[in-house]
Amino acid sequence: MKLGIDLGGTKIEGVVLSASGIVLAKERVATPQTYPAIIDAIADLVGRLEATAGGHASVGLGGPGAESALTGRMKNSNTQCINGEALRDDLSIQLGRQVRFSNDANCFALSEAVDGAGAPYSSVFGVILGTGTGGGLVFNKQVLSGANGIAGEWGHTPMPNMTEGRPCYCGRKDCIETYLCGAGLVHSYRNAAGEALSAPEIVKCATGGDAQAAAVLDNYCRQLASALAVVINIVDPDVIVLGGGLSNIAMLYETVPQYWRNYVFSDQCVTKLLPAKYGDSSGVRGAAWLWG
Asked: For residues 159 and 88, what is the distance between their CA atoms, to the nearest angstrom?
């Protein structure tokens, strides 16, 4: 059996999968606010899941941020209490067994590559469009972490052709994330219309015939297309799979590939754009699949 843990800012989710990917046990708990409490909560969750599933399992952990190649400690996490901590090692000691860790976007991509929307393909780029904007690369069902542990961190590169100066939590400006995350779409609408609507409200207005909202959403599609075209020009994946709340915008899957043809350096672009098969469960399933 394979046990996966998805550490999020507000919830910790765990799942136990059979070798064929059948869910044997699943549970969510609230994320504590301190690092020691997070370690304890994960260890307790692992114990309950194994008791429900009826056996011992390998443990994979997905979460925000990455492990430093220099120290093995966490960096770049928006769950800030884990930054600087030896998360994987501390959890391994607590559980008395080896734990494998990967970024939550990598886990999302791995899940969709193993038995999700990207399963028929050898190269998959997984994208999370939600509270943040993350990415992960999988080749032949294996996560590519990179020399610095940041492969796929597409959300923190500059948005092509934009110099608005939007600040990002990472300390830089005009990161792709600041335009394509949920708050980025809200920001774009406020700039254009002078009022604040939530991302779902913007989509509802756009599909209901509101010209201003429709224009903002169309521009979002163009921005997403130009940002993904950078990935296609460098990696040339077979498929790009979208997850996160904004991946539920139906028009993305037809409109974005039409627009990215303007930016891809080829006479054709056969890369597919697909919604995730497992939705917000992909991250925890991918953590389980870290053990192959």
From this structure: 32
Query: What is the identity of the amino acid at 290?
Result: L
Rounded CA-CA distance 276/244 in Å is 9
Closest CA to 34 of 42, 25, 24: 42
pLDDT in tens, 94-119: 999 999 999 999 999 999 999 999 99
- Evaluate whether 153 touches 145 at the Cβ level (below 8 Å): no
Q: Supply the DSSP symbol for 84.
A: T
Distance CA 106, CA 34 (A): 24
- Report the half-sphere exposure of 274 (CA within 13 A, side-chain side): 23
Task: Identify the three-state secondary structure at position 167.
Answer: strand
Q: Which of 246, 286, 264 is nearest to 21 (CA)?
A: 286
Q: Which ranges of the chain would DSSP assign to H, the alpha helix?
A: 35-53, 87-95, 104-115, 177-180, 182-193, 199-207, 211-235, 252-260, 282-288
The two tokens of residue 26 are 């699943």
Measuring CA to CA, which residue among 32, 146, 47 is closest to residue 82? Answer: 32
- Is 58 in contact with 48 (CB distance < 8 Å)? no
Tokens of 267: 């006479």
Structure tokens at 58: 């390998």
Q: Find where tokens 């209490």 sit.
A: 81
Determine contact, residues 263/89, Cβ cutoff 8 Å.
no
180-227 tens-digit pLDDT: 999 999 999 999 999 999 999 999 999 999 999 999 999 999 999 999
Tokens, residue 65? 């941020």
